[in-house]
Design goal:
160 residues, Transcription Regulator spoIIAA, 2 domains, five-stranded mixed sheet, 6 helices, 26% helix, binds zinc ion
């Protein structure tokens, strides 16, 4: 599914809910968006399903434009978006990141879980900080994060 978005004005800014795939067609979907955005925006990434290299390029161009004279915050970034943010600093540019989803697996029963980490609640402040243990809802064993914690959270260091 191609990238779509819905916007919603709230007290703390304009929320943009992205949905679908950031691919080679994203350039078209994103082209007109910066013109309409308010000065404070929150980009909700929860329903971005996948991203490819053409999509990354389109996104970076879009963000560069959108960031001009705007404060942008990313929230609810799925693991795939976090990987992009870690690999390509321009993917988030100057934007603030306030929450991310990490993927967990239970080695005992194969359950999977997406855990939200939110700034001011359970999000670490540096990549080396200990992350609270997550317990499997099914069998009660401790779940493992799919990526190395200090790598998954390495973007926290670039944030300063
Ligand atoms: Zn389990």
């Amino acid at each position: 599914m191609d990238l779509t978005f819905q916007t919603k004005k709230q007290d703390d800014g304009e929320y943009v809910y992205f949905n679908g795939e950031i691919n080679e067609d994203a350039e078209v979907s994103l082209a007109e968006l910066p013109k309409h955005l308010e000065s404070t925006c929150v980009f909700n990434m929860k329903h971005v399903t996948s991203i490819n290299s053409c999509g990354v390029r389109a996104w970076i161009n879009f963000l560069r434009e959108a960031e001009k004279s705007r404060n942008i915050t990313f929230e609810e970034c799925p693991p795939e978006i976090v990987s992009q943010i870690n690999m390509i600093p321009n993917f988030r540019g100057k934007s603030h990141i306030r929450s991310v989803f990490a993927s967990y697996v239970c080695e005992n029963c194969d359950s999977q879980h997406l855990q939200l980490f939110t700034e001011g609640e359970n999000l670490p402040t540096s990549p080396d900080e200990e992350v609270p243990e997550i317990t499997c809802q099914k069998c009660g064993e401790t779940m493992e994060m799919e990526e190395l914690e200090n790598e998954f959270f390495s973007w926290l260091d670039h944030a300063k």
